[in-house]
Structure formats: C-alpha cells, structure tokens
C-alpha cells in the first residue's frame, strides 16, 4: 500500500535522509531511531511537507512524490504531527471537526464524530472546553481524534508517547491498537522502542539518515544490537 | 443585537444636524472597513503584515482616477478600485507567504513605504506631493457633493462589508484562517493549504482596504500622500488592538473609540499623543485581548458560576 523507494532529503547542506526505503501493507509498522536519525523527516517526505531530493513514494500504486500536503491528505494519508499540535484557543469540538475539513458529507461526519468519541470518551465531556486547557495526554488524544475524522487510509503518528506518563502511554497504545483493528494501517515513529516493538508487526531502524535494519518486530526485539542500542538491555 | 444598535445609531446621526458630525461619522465608518480588513489578515489569519495603507492608497487613487476618466457611478468605480487593490495584494501575497513573523512585517512595511514614495513621486498619475483633487462621485442620478449626501452610501457600504465579514467568519475559509493562525502544522495535517489560505487572506484584506479607499473618495474631495503613511497604519493597528484583535465587535468598538477621541479631547491637542499612548499602554497591560476580549471573559466568568459550570471555553469570536 505504501512504498518508499530510495528517498534522499536534506535541509540546506545537512543530509537528513540517504537512500531510505520502506514498504508497508495494512499492519502497524514502526520506525525507530535516535534523535535526529531522520524519522520525522521520513514522515514529512511522505506527507509532502518536505520534498525529497531523490527517490519516489507510491501510495496505492500511485506516485505521490512531490504532492502538496493537502493533496496527500486528500489521498487519505493523515499525519498526527509531533508535539501534540492542536488549535489551542479553539474548543475541543472545533478541533475535531477541523479534521473533517476536506469532507462535506455531513451524515458520515456525525458518525465519525461518534466513533472518535467512542475511542476517546474523555473528549466527550470536554467538547466545549478550550483545547489549550487539556492535559498533555488529552491533547494527544485530541490530535489523534482529529486525524481520525479525516477517514485515514494510512495514519502516520510522530512520537505519540512523547512526554506522557507510562500509564498514559499504555492506554494510548491500547487505543492505537483498537484503531488498527478497525482497519486503519499505522506508520508509527517512536523513540520508545520497547512499546513500539511490542505493538507493531514490523519495524525499521534508522541511523544517521540511513535505514540500517528492518524485520518483524518480534525478531527485532531479540536482536542483540537492537536490544543494546534501543532497548537498553 | 450589537449590529442592530450600530445601524440604528448610525442612521440617527444626520438628524443631529451638524455637518461636522456627519463628516466624523463618515470617517469612522470608513475606518471600520479599513480596520476589519487589516484584522482579517492580522487577527484571524495571524499574519503580521503592515502594507495596509498601501492598498488603502491604491483604492483611493484607482477609484478617483477611474471616476475622473469614465464618470461611472460609484457602485462601479469603488469595486474597480477595490479589485485593483486586491490584484496588487495578490501579487504581493506570492512572495509574502514565504515569510513569517518579523520578516513578513518588515517586508510588507517596506512595500508600504515604497507605495507611499510612488504616490508622492508619480506626478502624472497621483499628482505627487501636490495631492490629487477628486471629481464628485456619480450616483447615476446626480453627484455627491457633500458629507451629508455621501453618508447614506458610506453607511450602506460599511454595513455590507461588516455583513460579509460575519459570513466570512463562519465560512470554511474563515475556519482555515483561524487554523493557520493557531498552528500551521496542525492545519497542514488537516488538509488545509497554508500558503493558499494566506494568499487569499492577503488578497481579501487588500480588497477591504481598497473599498475603504473608495469610501474615502465619496466624502472627501482631496488626498495627499501624507495620510497614507505610518501614522495611519499605527492608528488602525491601535484601533484593532484596543478594541479586541480578531473579533468583529471588538474592532468596531476600537474604531469608534479612537475615532471619537480627538473630539473628546478637544482643547487638549497638545496632550493628544500623550493621552493616546497612556490608553494604549493601559489596554495592553490590563486588557491584553482588548476591550471586547475583556467583555467576553467577564461574560464567561459569570456563566461559569452556575452550579455545574467547570472551566468554560472561551467563546472566542462569537458576538
């Protein structure tokens, strides 16, 4: 479904990605790596925020390399940006509905709102509350809820666990698992390698902008180098 | 309700008799359009752009020159002038959408300075530093020769522009402007084209300034490039900030307040700048979201005293 073929990207003279490839079907796939390894840049290339210098990106067998971000969204690739980017002075309800920005079908928008609130019951009580007053975990849920309103065919999450307490991380990943079960493939960027490998089926590991390793998540979890570098074991 | 009170109050103004009061009313109504135009870009789309007086000037010169050349009625010349201002706005938007914050502010300010230089020096067209004398605006039935005759039309245009703004607020475009102001990342992730939205906001804002320029030609008889400079920009900015940035009622309150200030302070001319500065500093310190923002937060805190009231959401742009 998603096929990234040898993309290269740089910010000015700084090389961010060098010949990075990945493929995924309808699983949960995680992309691991240290700070600055190029994880976010890879997502940003797919979502059209960063233009790759070389390489091609295919989604559902169509070439989407170089499409503007709003056209990538139109194709159903939705990114949950890093750092809980929400519209903080709007209400929770307005935030969620902005996720349906590109859609005009009112009736199914209502259905989707119901299913988003079903995933995140805590948001239902706070629909009229200003989004900036939510706790960190609630803001992350809001960002994911907004993304689900766009009816993603592929959901890309950038560090959803960032800054959350371990308990919240667990319940967040439990919800991510339910979203996937409902039929949404997920490409997950994480620094928290242990939980990402536990919840995903396949993993890629980036180091200094290069893909150094990939494999089934269960296999990666037992790989000596991975255990040492990313799991701290 | 506020809109109704505004219209009734405005309609009653000519009955007060004095032609000077009518002139003031015309000025204030024009400033309403000028200020809500700047607020669309600044308060809603969150773009710190300061080229507004340039588009205001283009609206003034274009409308009056078209009037001189063709003698068409004002309801054609003003849209033509506004379109020309909008066209220049769209051209400026192309490079401007690549800039942010301080850089955008400086670049647009530089454009405003260049525009004022052109108004001052393109003598064959603008009359240069001698200024440009207008010909009376045509209504199709006759000519507008004084403030009182201009007033109903100026009022109608202002009401129309306020009504358009209200609709813009509630539209998809209005929402996406708010979204890019809040977070460009989140807006992009929601499928909003950030650059396109900025460019549209830029163009719309320039059209408003152009319309305000056209209104100016209805009740004034002459323009000098000096009124198209930094002072006017600061006045309009202060109106927005004091009234309540990003809120339609707030901007109107700010325009009326600062528009009436010179009158209230008559006899205190030498202290005018001083009092003006005190008001601005006072508002910024005690009402950072302006007078209207203060009204809204008072209303919210009264609402939240109900038993089940938790933290109420700020109702932001509702009026």
Please characterize this protein's 3D structure:
The complex is a heterodimer of chains A (233) and B (319). Chain A is an alpha/beta fold and 233 residues long. Chain A has two domains: 1-76 and 152-233, Rossmann fold (3-Layer(aba) Sandwich); 87-151, no CATH class. Chain A contains ten helices and ten strands. The longest helix of chain A has 16 residues, at 166-181. The model of chain A has no long low-confidence stretch (mean pLDDT 90). Helix content of chain B is 72%, strand content 3%. Chain B has one domain. In chain B, strands 1-4 form a two-stranded antiparallel ribbon. Chain B has a two-stranded antiparallel sheet with strand order 2-3. The longest helix of chain B has 26 residues, at 19-44. The radius of gyration of chain B is 20 Å and the shape is globular. In chain B, helix 7 (147-170) packs antiparallel against helix 10 (194-219) and helix 8 crosses helix 10. Chain B has 14 helices and four strands. Chain B has 319 residues and is mostly helical. Chain A binds chain B through residues 47, 49, 68-70, 73-74, 78-81, 85-91, 94, 98-99, 101-102, 128-130, 133, 143, 146-147, 150, and chain B through 172, 175-176, 178-179, 182-183, 185-193, 310-314, 316.
């Amino acid at each position: 479904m998603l096929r990234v073929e040898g993309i290269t990207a740089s910010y000015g003279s700084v090389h961010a990605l060098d010949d990075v490839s990945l493929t995924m079907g309808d699983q949960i796939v995680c992309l691991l790596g240290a700070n600055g390894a190029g994880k976010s840049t890879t997502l940003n290339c797919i979502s059209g925020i960063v233009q790759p210098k070389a390489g091609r990106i295919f989604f559902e067998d169509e070439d989407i390399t170089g499409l503007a971000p709003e056209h990538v969204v139109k194709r159903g690739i939705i990114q949950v940006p890093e750092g809980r980017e929400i519209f903080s002075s709007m209400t929770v309800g307005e935030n969620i509905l902005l996720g349906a920005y590109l859609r005009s079908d009112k009736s199914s928008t209502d259905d989707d709102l119901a299913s988003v609130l079903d995933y995140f019951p805590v948001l239902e009580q706070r629909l009229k509350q200003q989004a900036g007053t939510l706790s960190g975990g609630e803001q992350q849920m809001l960002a994911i809820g907004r993304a689900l309103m766009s009816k993603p065919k592929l959901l890309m999450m950038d560090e959803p666990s960032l800054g959350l307490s371990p308990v919240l991380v667990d319940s967040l990943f439990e919800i991510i698992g339910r979203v996937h079960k409902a039929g949404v493939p997920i490409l997950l960027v994480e620094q928290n390698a242990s939980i990402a490998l536990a919840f995903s089926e396949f993993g890629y590991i980036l180091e200094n902008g290069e893909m150094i390793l990939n494999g089934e998540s269960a296999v990666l979890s037992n790989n000596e180098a991975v255990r040492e570098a990313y799991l701290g074991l | 309700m506020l809109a109704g009170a505004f219209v009734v109050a405005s309609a009653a103004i000519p009955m007060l008799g004095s032609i000077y009061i009518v002139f003031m009313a015309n000025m204030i109504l024009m400033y309403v359009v000028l200020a809500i135009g700047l607020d669309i870009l600044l308060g809603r789309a969150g773009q710190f752009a300061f080229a507004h007086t340039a588009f205001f000037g283009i609206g003034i010169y274009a409308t009056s020159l078209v009037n001189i050349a063709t003698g068409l009625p004002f309801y054609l010349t003003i849209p033509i002038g506004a379109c020309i201002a909008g066209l220049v706005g769209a051209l400026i938007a192309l490079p401007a959408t690549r800039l942010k914050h301080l850089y955008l502010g400086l670049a647009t300010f530089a454009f405003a300075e260049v525009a004022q230089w052109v108004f001052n020096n393109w003598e064959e067209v603008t009359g240069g530093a001698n200024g440009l004398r207008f010909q009376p605006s045509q209504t199709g039935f006759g000519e507008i020769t004084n403030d009182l005759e201009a007033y109903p039309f100026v009022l109608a245009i202002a009401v129309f522009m306020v009504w358009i703004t209200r609709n813009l607020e509630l539209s998809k475009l209005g929402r996406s402007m708010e979204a890019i102001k809040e977070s460009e990342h989140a807006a992009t992730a929601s499928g909003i084209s950030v650059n396109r939205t900025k460019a549209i906001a830029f163009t719309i804002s320039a059209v408003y300034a152009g319309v305000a320029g056209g209104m100016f030609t209805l009740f004034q008889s002459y323009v000098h490039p000096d009124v198209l400079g930094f002072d006017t920009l600061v006045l309009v900015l202060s109106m927005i900030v004091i009234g309540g940035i990003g809120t339609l009622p707030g901007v109107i309150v700010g325009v009326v307040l600062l528009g009436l200030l010179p009158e209230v302070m008559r006899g205190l001319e030498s202290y005018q700048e001083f009092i003006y500065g005190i008001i601005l500093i006072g508002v910024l310190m005690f009402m950072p979201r302006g007078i209207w923002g203060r009204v809204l937060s008072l209303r919210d805190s009264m609402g939240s005293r109900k038993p089940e009231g938790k933290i109420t959401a700020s109702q932001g742009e509702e009026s």
